[in-house]
Design brief:
single chain; 318 residues; mainly alpha; Formate dehydrogenase/DMSO reductase fold; 11 helices; disordered N terminus
Length: 318
């Protein structure tokens, strides 16, 4: 399973074009979809726990369907990247407490029942037509507020674990200075929450939820900027490989893409637009949420690509 983190050994060569790594799409897409699903699970769990599921148009009823599709697509992208596909099942014959991959594999398995339990609260019409008995199960679940609270809590907890795992998976690679920071999981979790809030805001039918998600996304974007500052301060005050890893994004070959698509179009501009929108200066549109989502995707591509290019044994990265 090492190929998940060491996508190519040729990236150890500092003379290789760094943007060749950008063509490796499977892992960034997997990390992005995993983070997006994690954020949506936290949002859905919060809505359920806070009692918003009593509203017939609560987004918590549509989120689990979308999450199942996105998570399955993400796992398929991960599967395509694996070199030894027939042996994936071996991950589930043991649990290695020190292995991020082992934790991730079991977290992903637990996420599916949590999402299905969420769906059981209000099955769709086509599901009821296929399986009429689902209405009985749904009725039993909704008769017990305790079960509803458990579903909400489990979605929030597993969502946080899934979102954090996507960052821990990379940060455990000590040989890659750009990934080797204890704040990477925080960055990925907050970025996933931001992208999820923006995505759910696009299709939320409940006006109060839509307004709440826009305000929450503003908070997530501010925190994301703060985490970036903390990460770079940590790198720039560390050893030379960490300094040069940070310079890949700040002034190096990845800097234009990072500053324009991640910081500018992915955080600062949508933050300004949504601040004006929540203060009723302008109308809510799909522009800011789409920018946030694209920025989150580009962030994963840059972190994965630049992280592979950075290495302790490279004298210079540029």
């Amino acid at each position: 399973m090492n190929e998940l983190l060491e996508l190519t050994t040729t990236r150890n060569n500092p003379h290789v074009d760094p943007f060749m790594a950008m063509w490796e799409w499977q892992i960034p897409v997997y990390l992005f979809l995993g983070g997006l699903v994690a954020g949506m699970m936290i949002i859905s769990g919060y809505f359920i726990f806070s009692g918003r599921h009593k509203e017939s148009n609560c987004a918590c009823f549509s989120i689990p369907f979308i999450s199942l599709v996105f998570l399955s697509l993400g796992m398929f992208a991960l599967f395509l990247d694996l070199a030894h596909k027939p042996y994936v099942w071996r991950l589930y014959t043991t649990f290695q407490i020190k292995s991020p991959m082992s934790w991730g594999a079991w977290i992903l398995i637990l996420v599916y029942p949590a999402l299905i339990a969420n769906i059981m609260m209000k099955p769709s019409l086509w599901m009821l037509r296929l399986y009429p008995k689902l209405s009985l199960w749904s009725g039993k679940v909704n008769q017990h507020p305790f079960f509803i609270k458990i579903i909400g809590i489990s979605n929030m907890i597993l969502g946080m674990m899934l979102g954090a795992y996507t960052g821990v998976l990379l940060s455990s690679m000590g040989s890659r200075p750009l990934w080797n920071t204890s704040l990477l999981w925080v960055l990925f979790l907050v970025s996933g929450l931001s992208a999820a809030a923006a995505f759910v805001h696009l299709f939320a039918k409940n006006k109060a939820e839509s307004e709440l998600l826009a305000k929450a996304d503003n908070g997530f974007l501010v925190v994301e900027l703060f985490v970036f500052v903390m990460i770079f301060l940590g790198f720039l005050s560390s050893a030379r490989p960490h300094i040069e890893a940070a310079q890949l994004l700040l002034t190096g070959p990845y800097a234009p893409t990072f500053w324009v698509f991640v910081i500018g179009l992915g955080i600062v501009i949508p933050l300004i637009i949504q601040l004006l929108a929540v203060n009723h200066k302008i109308r809510h549109t799909a522009i800011a949420p789409i920018m946030v989502i694209v920025g989150g995707l580009v962030l994963r591509f840059i972190i994965v690509s630049a992280g592979q290019y950075s290495h302790w044994f490279n004298a210079h990265f540029h």
